[in-house]
Amino acid sequence: MSRITIRPAAPSDWPAIWAMIEPVFRAGDTYAVATDITEDAARALWFDGPAACFVADGPNGLLGTYYIKANFSGHADHICNCGYITAAAAAGQGVATAMCTHSLTAARDLGFDAMQFNLVLASNTRAVALWRRLGFATIGTLPQVFRHPDLGRVDAYIMHKHLS
């Protein structure tokens, strides 16, 4: 992969972020997001609401995006959650690896002690393999929790990694 720069997302990045995340949300096969989500609701979910939103910038434009947010509130707000989406044209080029690696440092810098993914679909084998390669443990399986548009009901994993 050519040079990737990961930086905080700017408001001017939103149109390109939306162009990446909209088809993923519409497909309904990886995220537990309504397939008819509005752009405003998607912006609140991905860009405005989280503690931080980042983009992976390449020589010809944005290659991916991710957010970090507290997974819980109150006495469990030291655990974060992230969402990652790679631009379709950049799939398989190391963008997700670069974003996740960056997010581990960014999460520590934001004061989080651990990262937890609450719903990693068993059918999303590339993501499962990547998270495992980066040190995430599967701490639970949620049986048939996701209604996949092509596969029917599929299992999902809860994956966790301490950041210290």
UniProtKB/TrEMBL annotation:
**Highest taxon above the source species:** Bacteria
One protein family per Pfam: Acetyltransf_1
- Keywords, in A-Z order: Transferase
Identify the residues that the record assigns to the N-acetyltransferase domain, covering every copy.
4-164
GO MF term (any one): acyltransferase activity, transferring groups other than amino-acyl groups
The protein's name in its UniProt record: Acetyltransferase (GNAT) family protein
Query: Source species, please?
Result: Pseudooctadecabacter jejudonensis
